[in-house]
Amino acid sequence: MAREFGRQGLHVVHPVIDGPIDTPFVRERFPELVAQRPADGLLAPDDIADTYWFLHNQKRSAWTFELDIRPYLEPISNF
Questions:
Q1: pLDDT tens for residues 6-18?
Q2: How many angstroms separate the CA atoms of 9 and 28, rounded?
Q3: Residue 79 has pLDDT above 60, yes or no
Q4: H or E stretch covering 66
Q5: Whole-number Å distance between alpha carbons of 7 and 43
Q6: Domain regions of the chain by residue span
Q7: CA 20, CA 56: separation in Å to the nearest integer?
Q8: DSSP code string of 12-46
Q9: What b/e sequence results for 56-78 when a residue is b if at least 16 CB atoms lie within 10 Å of its CB, and e otherwise?
């Protein structure tokens, strides 16, 4: 899609939100997860919005086509 619509000036982005978002639903359904993480260990909705705004304002000479959005704190695998 990015190659097809980019020629028309449309910025196509595939943002991947990979982590728990700090919402009332997450806090109610997963209290143990919230308790294990520091205050900024969940994805803040305003910070996600800032990331989308950044993508919206990108210059065409350096467009992002795929972006992973995740908290800095991720569980360590036991593998």
A1: 788 888 899 999 9
A2: 42
A3: no
A4: strand 66-69
A5: 33
A6: 2-69
A7: 23
A8: --EEEE-S-B-SHHHHHH-HHHHHHS-TTSSB-HH
A9: eeeeeeeeeeeeeeebeeeeeee
